[in-house]
Amino acid sequence: MMGRGEAGIDSVEIKVHPRQANTQAGSSPNPSQFQSQSVFKNWVPWLVPLFVVANVAVFIAVMYVNDCPSNSGSCVARSLGRFSFQPLKENPLLGPSSSTLEKMGALDVNRVVHKHQSWRLISCIWLHAGVFHVLANMLSLLFIGIRLEQEFGFLRVGLVYVISGYGGSLLSALFIQTGISVGASGALFGLLGGMLSELITNWTIYANKFAALLTLLCIIAVNLAVGLLPHVDNFAHIGGFLSGFFLGFVFLIRPQFKWINQKTCPPGYIAPPAQSKHQTYQYVLWVISLIVLIIGFTLGLVALFRGVNVNNNCSWCHYLSCVPTSLWSCKLQQVYCQSMELGSQLKLTCLSNGKSNMYDLSNNDSSKLVAFNMPPPVTTGGVVGAVSWDVVQVEVDS
């Protein structure tokens, strides 16, 4: 039987039989015939904690650049100086302004497509809209990522995290053509998707298979349902989850049980023969997943840089990100600016954050200036709760 210990160390209880020459007829079996050995390396996690530190450091840097006292009329926690937060009516998550996030690398489809800033597809997953946003995502990353890194190592988990974040940004850019998007939620959903595919491809090593599968599916369903609320980028969640799901079949694969028995069998004992390291279905899933990932990312990038708005070809897809109810609307909130003409100049003041600018009216065209001064709406995301594997089941830490 093979299981995962309480401390997260993978071990296999190997039952083997001694060779005929080493056993006398009628002799009782020796306890040493039953061996318990560690067959999977237990990695020391360092990359996931480094990701957490990097995200927090980036958030501090964004707040430094934001400098609320110099750019807004009123700030929250003004005693923090330039690290103080934007007014709650502008950013209830306790964070910077949307214009600062846009300047620091938030996902903006117009800049990605028309200004060749494709790096925003990666930079946006390191940005967060506020203290509550970064805190929720980083706690989830610690609970989910550390256990995965202990089992599979920094390289495979790091690739799943970054590529899934990129996949989430790509799908978000194809559907959300206005406003900006920030957050590591696409990458976090990629880890959840990787956990699901890892459970499927390594199905034989779990005891309570269906309990683990049902619990994980419930967690994923709850988190995707939260993404139906307004101002939550559920397309990043879906894109990250699908990317991580297929990446799990590629990177998070375990050898079959017979092969482990054969490789860890002590001298003088024989184990059931294993013709290959992995089972046939694992190879099939590996090939199919790799093909799907290559085709999906290629088609997505081609559609993005050709300026395709997928919503035009899918009239119902917008419901995947927000479902309107009597309690809220899915329409983007309008931003109003107050104008005051002073001679040949126009003074515009944004009512949400108090920012104001002066514009020259010599060209008698102020209509474009109003649109230019409006801060873009921000969509964010995050994972509710966290997941960790334990022996034969999934635990939820809230």
UniProtKB/TrEMBL annotation:
Entry keyword Membrane: yes
Gene Ontology MF: a single term: serine-type endopeptidase activity
Example of a GO cellular component annotation carried by this entry: Golgi apparatus
Pfam assignment, any one: Rhomboid
Protein's membrane topology: Multi-pass membrane protein
Transmembrane segments: 43-64, 125-146, 158-176, 182-203, 210-229, 235-253, 283-305
Cited SUPFAM superfamilies: Rhomboid-like
Membership in a protein family: Belongs to the peptidase S54 family.
Record's subcellular location: Membrane
Alphabetized UniProt keyword annotations: Hydrolase, Membrane, Protease, Serine protease, Transmembrane, Transmembrane helix
Domain Peptidase S54 rhomboid intervals: 116-252
Catalytic activity: Cleaves type-1 transmembrane domains using a catalytic dyad composed of serine and histidine that are contributed by different transmembrane domains
EC number per UniProt: 3.4.21.105
Organism, as annotated: Populus alba x Populus x berolinensis
Domain of life the protein comes from: Eukaryota
InterPro entries in the cross-refs: Peptidase_S54_rhomboid-like, Peptidase_S54_rhomboid_dom, Rhomboid-like_sf
Gene Ontology BP annotations: proteolysis
Keyword Transmembrane: yes
Function: Serine protease involved in intramembrane proteolysis.
Protein name: RHOMBOID-like protein
